[in-house]
Amino acid sequence: METQLSNGPTCNNTSNGPSTISNNCSSPVESGSMEDSKTNLIVNYLPQNMTQEELKSLFGSIGEIESCKLVRDKITGQSLGYGFVNYVDPKDAEKAINTLNGLRLQTKTIKVIALVSQRFHV
């Protein structure tokens, strides 16, 4: 039996406001596409007051974004300090890692890494 694991979801930008969280999420496990794992990024250590629009603008300066999601607390709407960005082109995802990883935003230094799928046998 072959199972595929993922380090996290990829979410489409379907938020209806600052306190709404989208349930329209998928992961490379569900899509089964290894190409997705080359374009999906997780961004950690974001400033709490950063908006989804600012996140999209920052990463959109690198290349075309398929989806972007700033993760927020379901009750308070407060940013949890991380998000997901999915690029159309794997080269843009790689460029974003090389360009934006370690960038200082306000008092935080962001960490940008690829969501890499792993396969193993059970």
Automatic annotation (TrEMBL):
Any one Gene Ontology molecular-function term assigned to this protein's record: mRNA binding
SUPFAM superfamilies: RNA-binding domain, RBD
InterPro entries the record matches: Euk_RNA-bind_prot (IPR050502), Hud_Sxl_RNA (IPR002343), Nucleotide-bd_a/b_plait_sf (IPR012677), RBD_domain_sf (IPR035979), RRM_dom (IPR000504)
GO CC terms, sorted: nucleus; ribonucleoprotein complex
This protein's UniProt keywords: Repeat, RNA-binding
Key word Transferase present: no
Region (Disordered): 1-34
Domain RRM: 39-112
Protein known as: ELAV like RNA binding protein 2
